[in-house]
Amino acid sequence: MIKGFPKPMARLIEAFKKMPGIGAHSAQKLTFYILQASRKETDSLIRSIGEVKQNVRFCRTCNNLSDEDICSICSDTARDPKLVCVVEDPNGVIAMEKSGVYNGVYHVLLGELSPIDGVGPDELKITDLVKRVGTDGVEEVILATDFTTEGETTALYLLEVLKPFDIKVSRLARGVPVGASLEFADSATLQRALEERKEA
User: Fold this and answer.
1) Is the dihedral of CA 137, 81, 123, 175 positive or negative?
2) 7-53 CATH
3) d(Cα 4, Cα 100) in Å, to the nearest integer?
């Protein structure tokens, strides 16, 4: 237990510290905020967390986050289902959508290849991608994995897996800095990377 805090506060601080990007100082600030917030605000927060856990799931088609079986992007008839952008996680979808220049659909891998961490092809949604390409009339797959070692490894693996199909496979242009995560790229950079994508 953390010295100087009542046990319930210490437990909450420890819980916050387990979250990505939250250190000891941020965890304490969040705990003090909750302590000082009104009961109505904290009840609303608790309810929102419960609703997220209960109602948010992965889209049956693309693995993006959704509160329905099929996400709003996959069910949007104005989008081009023949153009599939492959991203590592839902943050990649959000980043691409912010760019405002992409009108296709997505496939979310839910991770990246990382043998050192025990993440191989079977742990990702690669088989689902192959099925989509083989049955859904896909004409182009855009590989939008991060420009990190793991992201590049994933892109190269996908390129090999998709070779047997008579489709165009492209990769975002290098407007996204090497070693950078897609979610941190600004909209203008993503737009340029998308427009200047190269056949892989």
Assistant:
1) positive
2) 1.10.8.420
3) 49
